[in-house]
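Q: What structure does this chain adopt?
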Amino acid sequence: MPVVPTGAAVSAAAALAFHRHSLAVVAVVLTGAVAAYLGDAVTYLACRLGGEQLARRLRWIRGGQRLDGLVARLRARAVPVLLVSRLLPGGRIPVLLTAALIGVDGRRFALANAPACVLWSGVYAAIGMLGGSIFPEPWQGVLVAVALVVVITQVPDLVRRRSRV
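A:
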């Protein structure tokens, strides 16, 4: 598990790129999308090969958690489900796991996941550009972009934990 969430890394790189040359942001978005795509492909392959047993061992599935609701949505609309899962904190792993466990064809997964990764990278790059455009110094934009992403990704989890107590 990375110390800095990957979305924060894309945001920070975009904030720096924005101060250097605005076209460099395109390279950040493409690099982030390719890295996300490769990470998803490795996760999908691991889930296909290791199945539910591997997912439970890695604690991607806890206790009696079920993924039935995702199965129907993935079969009906793989692209929108992957798009949304990429943007929701904690949504990526259950969707990738479900796709692998129900046997979504690798080619279909590859085609459906590409726009999700580009969208994800673009959203986080936009957060970085926003931070980079507000502040005169690149380090200030990077700091704000990373803080924003950490808040965006951690607040829903904190709210969920508090509601259980």
